[in-house]
């Protein structure tokens, strides 16, 4: 079979492990041909292809990023659907493996509706893809954010400061909750729970008087103040509806400084969370998803997403997950609060 492969949306560590697994399983186990599209859906529209063989994937396992390149590009909204179909036909693609987050998977669902056989693989450091316990990249991002919080902890204590750490997470606070718990943050702010700055200020005053003269506040970039609370405002989005990095962190840190008088500093972790070498967990997850995707196509199971559930790889119908979001469960949010 001729199988197409693309990585779309924001990059993350572990993508190369999945690419490598698709190529190895495809070529070695079944004798398929694997056709890579460069820069996600844009490469499909532009017909930008590379035939993948063992030489292409040598030494990519520990490397961050994606050797295929990626782009934030949605063919259906960019009017490129006809071109997608034309390229897939010209390249005689019999099935397409799409590695991506919500945007890429929504596009995959649209392409599947046009009759193309699709198997999706979930990736995003935000971990908000519905239907899977884990997405590629999340584990590494939590490691990076935790290490950063550990480092910030020591300087916070030395200087008696409030340190605000903004982490990624547009729609869900997975990184904030996990790294907040692992790094021992005093306050964790997530999109799931709109916050009240007055309550935070009260807590900080009490803590700095009674317990310790420093605090760590982890803020997900998509966190927002509660309607009607003291800091009520509309979160500003960029021209494509994207989050403006540092915006909420800056606002929170300024309000804390002004309301408490405590010396406050902001660190925006930004794309550091998406870079560098993947953890073993992400390498293993990417490898398992890659092998499962090729197996699924070979067995005629398509229009599905590979997913991790209870440590088993399963296939979930694409239409069940497209357009949905996996938010942080109450239990994890409660742990983050209980340990503050
Ligand atoms: O990959 C998801 C994500 O990490 C979001 O949390 C963040 O808002 C966004 O990517 C940033 O993307 P870009 O690389 O386009 O700035």
Provide keyphrases for this structure:
340 residues; alpha/beta; Rossmann fold; 2 domains; 7-stranded mixed beta sheet; 4-stranded parallel beta sheet; elongated; binds 6-O-phosphono-beta-D-fructofuranose
In short:
The protein is of the alpha/beta class and 340 residues long.
Protein architecture, described:
This protein is α/β, with parallel strands linked by helices and 340 residues long. It folds into two domains: 2-137 and 278-321, 3-Layer(aba) Sandwich (Rossmann fold); 140-274, Phosphofructokinase domain (Rossmann fold), CATH 3.40.50. The chain has helices spanning 15-30, 41-46, 54-57, 81-90, 102-113, 138-159, 174-183, 197-210, 247-260, 280-298, 318-321, 330-338; strands spanning 2-7, 33-37, 49-52, 95-100, 118-122, 162-167, 187-189, 215-220, 264-268, 304-309, 312-317. A seven-stranded mixed sheet has the order 3-2-1-4-5-10-11, sandwiched between helices. Helix 1 (15-30) packs parallel to helix 10 (280-298), helix 6 (138-159) crosses helix 7 and helix 7 packs parallel to helix 12 (330-338). The mean pLDDT is 95. The structure holds 6-O-phosphono-beta-D-fructofuranose. Substrate binds at residues 124-126, 161, 168-170, 221, 265, 271-274. Residues 2-297 form the Phosphofructokinase domain. Catalyzes the phosphorylation of D-fructose 6-phosphate to fructose 1,6-bisphosphate by ATP, the first committing step of glycolysis.
């Amino acid at each position: 079979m001729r199988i197409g492969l693309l990585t779309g949306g924001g990059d993350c560590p572990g993508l190369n492990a999945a690419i490598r697994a698709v190529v190895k399983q495809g070529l070695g186990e079944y004798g398929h041909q694997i056709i890579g599209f460069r820069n996600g859906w844009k490469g499909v529209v532009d017909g930008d292809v590379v035939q993948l063989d063992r030489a292409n994937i040598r030494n990519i396992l520990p490397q961050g990023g994606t050797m295929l390149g990626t782009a934030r590009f949605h063919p259906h909204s960019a009017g490129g659907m006809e071109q997608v179909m034309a390229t897939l036909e010209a390249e005689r693609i019999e099935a397409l493996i799409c590695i991506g987050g919500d945007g890429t998977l929504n596009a995959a669902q649209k392409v599947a509706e046009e009759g193309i056989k699709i198997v999706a693989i979930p990736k995003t450091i935000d971990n908000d893809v519905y239907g899977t316990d884990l997405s590629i990249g999340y584990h590494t991002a939590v490691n990076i954010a935790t290490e950063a919080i550990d480092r910030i902890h020591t300087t916070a204590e030395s200087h008696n400061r409030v340190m605000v750490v903004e982490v990624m997470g547009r729609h869900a606070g997975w990184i904030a909750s996990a790294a907040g718990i692992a790094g021992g943050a005093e306050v964790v702010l997530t999109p799931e729970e709109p916050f009240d700055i007055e309550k935070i200020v009260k807590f900080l005053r009490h803590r700095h008087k009674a317990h310790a003269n420093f605090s760590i506040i982890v803020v997900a970039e998509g966190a927002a103040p509660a309607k009607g609370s003291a800091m009520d405002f509309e979160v500003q989005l960029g021209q494509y509806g994207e989050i403006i990095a540092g915006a909420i962190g800056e606002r929170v840190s300024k309000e804390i400084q002004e309301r408490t008088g405590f010396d406050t500093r902001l660190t925006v972790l930004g794309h550091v969370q998406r870079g560098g070498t993947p953890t073993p967990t992400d390498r293993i997850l990417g490898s398992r998803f890659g092998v499962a995707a090729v197996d699924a196509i070979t067995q005629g199971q398509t229009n599905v997403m590979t997913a991790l559930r209870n440590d088993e790889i399963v296939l979930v119908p694409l239409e069940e997950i497209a357009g949905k979001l996996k938010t942080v469960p109450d239990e994890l949010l409660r742990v983050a609060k209980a340990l503050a």
